[in-house]
Amino acid sequence: MAAPEKKRALDLKRKNDDSGDRGEDVTSEDSSNDEKNYESFRNEVIQVDFEGRNPIDSDFHGIKQLLSQLFLKAHLNLSELTNIIINQNYVGSVIKQSERDDGNESDDEEDYDANQVFGITTVINLTDKQKLECVQQLRTLLLELCIEHGSDEVVGFVRSLLSNDNKPLGLLLNERFVNIPAQIAVPMLKSLGTEIKRATEKKMAFDFSYFVLICKLYKTDLKSKKKNTKKNKKPTEEIVWSNPEEEIIDQEAEVSFEFSVEKESDSGLSGLWKESDDELTPLRRVLIIPASKFDEIVHKIEQEVTA
């Protein structure tokens, strides 16, 4: 039986400065007008209330879409992975827009979709569920990427972790639309921590030793940056985190490695860019963190994003 639906009002302001997914080509004739209006556009604030809810069957396509933007073209059975998330809905939450109940209609209500999933925060047991196809694929992918992109020390650590069933490994999923503020991560991660503890007390398979988190980030292309840098000034690499709170998690990681996904379709960051802007290379950084640090990390995130 599914757990009763939970709701947590998150009441966040969503800014539009990252949400310029325009869908059409911008011609040179239009671009000057676009640039003139860009500053006023990016400062526009739309009040949107979000809430965390248990994943349900109707969330299938929304969750799968979020997984697709994380894993891109990786050989994974995302349908099976999505079903796992929905079936274990006593742990983890999806982000949805709160339904208006004040009796006042607005133009925005025409765009309201009760099934729209804006984010997912949950954990999958990669040790206990390793007989499932998608979990086997995730374990294989993790090891293959580690061998290709990690140091010998990291490879040894990952091999040892995957071969030791006495140290359960959880895949931490923290995925959402790029224009939703980092503040939303605090109640989502806090709730996840509480649910993990509750499930563990009931002797369910959520007593993890480590979490693995795959982060989306972007780095400036140094070749492109060099063109836009003044003479005799050395260009510096800049990093943009899709989920800013994951930079804090990165600081607590026991091991990590990263790899480029430039050749794969990735629409994570979109918007109105000028020709002088530096090109960004999309990457994934894999973090492995001790589960014992989870509460401490969430506390640090809360301090940082609410400061």
UniProtKB/TrEMBL annotation:
What's a GO cellular component annotated to this UniProt protein? nucleus
Residue stretches of biased makeup (Basic and acidic residues): 1-25
**A Pfam family:** BCCIP
Please give the residue ranges the record annotates as the region Disordered. 1-38
What InterPro entries does the record tag this protein with? BCP1_family
- Entry superkingdom: Eukaryota
What family is this?
Belongs to the BCP1 family.
What is the protein named?
Protein BCCIP homolog
